[in-house]
What we know:
Structural class: mainly alpha
Helix content: over 70%
Largest sheet: none
Distance between the termini: 61 Å
Order of helices and strands: HHHHHHHH
Shape: globular
Number of helices: 8
Amino acid sequence: MTVAAGLGYALIALGPSLSLFVSVIVKKPFLVLTVLLSTLLWLVSLIVLSGVWRAFLPFKSMVWWPYGALVLTSVSFQEVLRNLLLELKPFCRRLEGVLDAFADRVSKPRLLLTDKMQIALAGGLGHAVAHGVFFCISMLTPAFGPATYYTEKCSYIPFFLVSAFLALAFVTIHTFSMVIAFNGYAEANKVDQYFVPVVHLLSGSLTMINLAPGGCIIAIPLLYFVAAVTLIHCGRTVYRRLVEDGRREHHL
């Protein structure tokens, strides 16, 4: 392969995230800071998980249950961490007060619902970037060489291309799941609160299909279906919140 191929894989995995960062995030410094802090937090969590599981890897057999245990513990750890972050309501209210005070001091409008949604989006983008870097970008160095690599279980598609496709699906899921989770905890909406961990566990479980011969041909479309469902649900949630907020302001 060539440098162009390696860059292509990287852009497949993180190109949409880069576009979102340039078009939305970079315009507001506090959103940039949120992305950086979120990326660092989720990278540290993934490194901790990899350190724990390093003692058991590589698995000596191809039975599914060790991989299932890995997916379950990894998803559970990340969802507990997400839950802890979103449950920090006193800290969030204090931070919101600081931002509102700063806005008053510089004669700018206070935080609107759209600003809060963008903060959630920035947090989700940080999670997505951490996943993309950890599971795809970190493995792309050989892709810049003169050849490519195929696995025995997926001999139809280059390994690096499969990694990039999988990373893009998870980037989409993680980015917009955070917005859904933020709304769920803000409104005490149990459906949204449970939607995110269920989708995360489902998408992680779908990756185990890659263990079967030719499984990547099935796993990739299924993951993109889950990503599409997540994106649609996020869009509906944000639209509903904005309409309700607009009606509330109109009555005031």
